[in-house]
C-alpha cells in the first residue's frame, strides 16, 4: 500500500499515465490537475478512496479517464468540464446518488461505464441523446424507472442488467442497427412481449433478457436473425408457445437458455445446426418430447439441462461413441422418462436425477 503524492506522481509533460493494478491508497492527488498535456489517465484497480478532487477536471485535454475498481465516493459533478473526453469508467466504486444529467454535455463520449456502484434514481433521458455514445454500461446499480427512447443509433453495447427498471423495451432500441450487446436481465419488472422487430438487429451477439416479466410468444426469428449471435438468454420469464423453431446452418450460437418459462411442444430438430452450442438449458418448462438423441450431433456441448419438463421414453435410443465427450453437466430430473437407459449415458456418470 502506498500514497500517490505530488512527489511521486508523473511529471508535467506526461501524455499517458497508467498506474493501474497497484496498491495506491488515499485520495487521488490534486496535483494530477497540473498535467496540462495529459490525454490518458488510468488509475484503475487500486485502493483510492474519498471524493475525486475538482482539480482533476482542470486537465481539459483528457480523452480517457479510468478510475474503476477503487473505493471512490461521491459523483464528480464537474465531469462535464472534460469536454474532450472519449471514454469514462467509474465502474466498481462506491458512488451513490443520481446520475447527473451534465454527463450528456460530453458530446464526444464514446464509452460510459458506471456499473457496480450504488447509483439510484432514474436514468437521465439526456443519456439517450448522446450522438457519439457506443457503450452505455449501467449494470449492477439501484436504478429504477422506464427506459427512455434512444435518439441516435450509434450504440453498440447496452447493459442495464441488475437494476430495478420496469415497463417495456422502448421500440427505439430495435432501430439501433449497430447494436452488438443488449443485456437487460434481472430487473424483475420489465414486461410486455418481445417484439419480432428485435430481429432487425442483424449484428447482435449477446441478447440477455432473463429474470424479468416478459410474456407472450418468443419471436420465431430469434433462431436465425443474426449469424453472430452466440448468447441467447430468455430464462425465468413468463414466455409461452414453442422454442424458436428455425436455427440456420452456420450460426454461432454457444449459449441457449430458456429455462423457467411456459414453453410447450417439441424441441425443434433444426437445433442440430447449432454445432457450436456449449450450454443448453430448457429446464422448468412443459416441453413434451422424447429423449433427444440428436444431442450427440452437438459436439461442443458441456452442459445440458432439461429437468422439470414432460420428456418421455428412452426407447430405441442409440448414441454414438462421440456423445458426451465434453459434457460435464447433464440434468434430466422431474420428467417422465422410461424404457432402457442408454449405456452411453450410464458411462458418463453425469446423469442427475
From TrEMBL:
Which GO CC terms are listed, alphabetically? membrane
Could you tell me which SMART domains the record lists for this protein?
LRR_TYP
Q: How does it sit in the membrane?
A: Single-pass membrane protein
- Record keywords: Leucine-rich repeat, Membrane, Repeat, Transmembrane, Transmembrane helix
Name the source's superkingdom: Eukaryota
Q: What is its main location?
A: membrane
For the keyword Ribonucleoprotein, the answer is no
Q: Where in the cell is it found?
A: Membrane
Report whether Secreted shows up as a keyword of the record.
Answer: no
The protein depicted here goes by the name Receptor-like protein 12
